[in-house]
Specification:
Helices cover 60% and strands 7% of the residues. The chain is mainly alpha-helical. The chain folds into 2 domains: 95 residues, no CATH class; 408 residues, Growth Hormone, Chain: A (Up-down Bundle), CATH 1.20.1250.20. Strands 5-4-6 form a 3-stranded antiparallel beta sheet, with no helix packed on it. It is a multi-pass membrane protein.
Length: 525
């Protein structure tokens, strides 16, 4: 393996290549320096100031495009699994490689997803204390989470446009909104007379507007920076950082807030953490110097063309509808878990641990499953396996708070988290695969937008179904859980229909086929 270092210190790893030579045209072939002793100077580097000889198949500057020049009869082509090559304009050979700098952007995108989700559930785990502090009802406090989710939908058109340009503008926009929103929330909570709720709500809306810019970005970022072998894992890391932030909020906030007087200080802590997570966003690289895979440079359809195709794309709807519903119920359960469990004698800490288990167990399951799916590409099989488990968990959870024991809720929520979280990156990547060459940000943003919209609606509906003081026990949310179970089971059959009724060809992984076809066309030259 040969490693190249950039002028700026960033590395790009290139694996040893094999050379296929046509003996009839060998006199016209370019020679390539190889680690096994071959040599030559037929490979050239295209730079801003012109091209120059490169005595090795390794690019020595991260900003260079590598192409092979020579007579039309030249047939010497490098190819293997580590270094991908493809035909560029004019028959040139383009190197597809990944860069170490991609990890900086991935880490930053992960941090933003963590903090923006924490912002969402800042007040939900301590809704009773927050209600006392702001002199408001718990229903009013619930609207902080609801406004956050509805803000996602409002920002969707702008998000799709920003991600179409590239992930960096979207990430910078999110960082700016997170910074502004968090400090405005603190200003509102720190005001006289125990805070100004309207100011806090405005800051919450700003953080809600930030979320789609980073939650919808993983598929676009992985498509731009990662090869097919690492896309599912990259998408999983960033996508699952969002619920991980929710888990941190569920678990940590109750320990910071022992009473209403602690609410303002808790908001300050979150604002400081958000600042640390947001500032590095302004320094991430915009795009790799050379594409990571052929699909990364495939011309994508316009937004108008994409929407026109998706409206009649049956497989898209078979995936989109259950994804939006299950994400919506996850948002609803996470926001209301404290109020679901408290009427049955559970404490804020009990509810916080339940919410953390829902997410942490899910993250562990996703960490195990994502690399496996990255290798097997069994997107459809995994989807059909996980969805029934999710539906059944929502059904069984209807009776869990009534057990008045932490064991039941903890076990069911853990299984629900494992099935749900392992499915999230799979569905995001499957939507991209089935709708290629529609740009990844279109399907991912629409899918998440549907989940956030339904999540907000489900919170409002569940709050309306909450029992009154004459309920048994008072304020229980049994009817809301029944509503959740009925809808969750109703959409369960949809993804199970993928590939059935003579539509097997419609679940072909088109983006993978595009990458494989590009490599095959090069190998056959």
């Amino acid at each position: 393996m040969t490693a190249a270092k950039d002028d700026d210190g960033h590395g790009a790893t290139i694996h040893q290549t094999e050379v296929a030579r046509d003996s009839k045209d060998s006199q016209h072939s370019a020679n390539v320096d190889m680690p096994n002793g071959g040599h030559g100077s037929g490979w050239r580097v295209l730079r801003d100031g012109g091209d120059e000889d490169l005595p090795s198949a390794v690019d020595k500057d991260n900003g260079a495009d590598l192409t092979q020049h020579g007579a039309s009869g030249s047939s010497e082509q490098p190819f293997n699994d580590g270094l991908q090559v493809g035909n560029g304009d004019g028959g040139d050979v383009v190197f597809y490689k990944t860069y170490k700098r991609r990890w900086f952007g991935l880490v930053q995108l992960t941090l933003l997803n963590i903090i923006v989700s924490w912002d969402w559930l800042t007040f939900a785990p301590v809704s009773s204390s927050a209600a006392v502090y702001f002199n408001a009802s718990e229903t009013t406090i619930n609207w902080l989470a609801t406004l956050f989710l509805f803000s996602f939908v409002v920002a969707t058109p702008v998000v799709i446009y920003a991600l179409h340009v590239g992930p960096k503008p979207s990430i910078i926009t999110a960082a700016a909104l997170v910074l502004a929103g968090n400090w405005i929330r603190y200003a509102g909570s720190h005001s006289s007379s125990r805070g100004i709720f309207g100011v806090v709500a405005f800051g919450q809306i700003l953080t809600g507007l930030a979320q789609p810019f980073v939650l919808s970005a993983p598929a676009r970022y992985s498509d731009l920076w990662f090869s097919p072998k690492g896309r599912v894992t990259a998408t999983a890391v960033v996508s699952l950082a969002n619920p991980f932030g929710a888990a941190l909020g569920q678990l940590i906030v109750p320990f910071w807030v022992e009473g209403p007087e602690d609410v303002s200080r808790m908001v300050l802590y979150v604002a400081v953490i958000s600042t640390v997570c947001s500032v590095p966003s302004f320094f991430i690289p915009a795009a790799p110097p050379t594409p990571a895979a052929p699909s990364g440079q495939t011309p994508k359809l316009s937004l108008k063309e994409s929407i026109h195709i998706l409206t009649s794309h049956l497989e898209f709807w078979l995936i989109f509808i259950p994804f939006a519903v299950y994400v919506g119920f996850f948002n609803s359960i996470s926001s209301l878990l404290n109020q679901i469990m408290e009427p049955y004698g559970f404490t804020d800490t009990d509810a916080g641990i339940a919410g953390a288990l829902l997410i942490v167990v899910g993250l562990v399951a996703a960490a195990i499953s994502s690399p496996i799916i990255d290798r097997t590409k069994a997107f459809v099989t995994w989807t059909k396996s996980a969805v029934p488990i999710i539906g059944l968990c929502y059904l069984v959870f209807v009776w869990m708070p009534g057990t008045r024991s932490v064991a039941g809720p903890y076990i069911v929520l853990s299984v629900l988290g494992a099935a749900s979280f392992s499915l999230i990156p799979v569905v995001i990547e499957l939507l991209v695969e089935l709708t290629h060459p529609i740009s990844p940000e279109v399907t991912s943003t629409l899918a998440w937008s549907g989940g956030q919209l339904l999540g907000g609606c489900f919170i409002v509906i569940s709050d309306a179904l909450k029992a009154g003081e004459d309920g048994t026990p008072p304020g229980n949310m049994y009817r809301a859980l029944v509503f959740t179970a009925v809808i969750a089971m109703a959409v369960l059959p949809l993804p199970l229909c993928l590939g059935l009724f003579g539509r097997g060809d419609n679940v072909t992984l088109k983006r993978m086929r595009s990458d494989a076809g590009e490599r095959a066309s090069v190998a056959s030259v």
